[in-house]
Amino acid sequence: MSSGPKIPQERKVVTAIPGPKSQEVIKRRREAVSAALGMAIPVVVEKAGGGVIVDIDGNSIIDMGAGIAVV
Fold it and tell me: What region does 27 belong to: left with phi over 0, alpha with psi -120 to 50, or beta?
């Protein structure tokens, strides 16, 4: 059993995806990081737990990437 953050296991979308904060970070990343290092999903993860990812904009999305952000 994981002792990670206790996150409600539900989907909640409060902004477009990617949201404005994620878009800003993605833009900065694009300017600083080689295009050879792609992004799997256009969100910036703030926390994750169980089967849910929460981005920096407050969107909770279901982790369909086999727990990629939870570990």
Answer: alpha
* Residues 6+ positions from 18 with CB-CB distance below 8 Å: 26, 42, 43, 44, 55, 57
Q: Which domain holds residue 26?
A: 9-71
Q: How many domains does the chain have?
A: 1
**Does 28 map to a domain?**
yes
Prior bond to 20 cis, omega within 30? Answer: no
71 vs 46: which has the higher pLDDT: 46
Span 40-51, pLDDT tens digits: 888 999 998 888
Residue 55 β-bridge partners: 45
Phi, psi of 6 (to 5 degrees): -85, 105
| Within-domain flag for 38 | yes
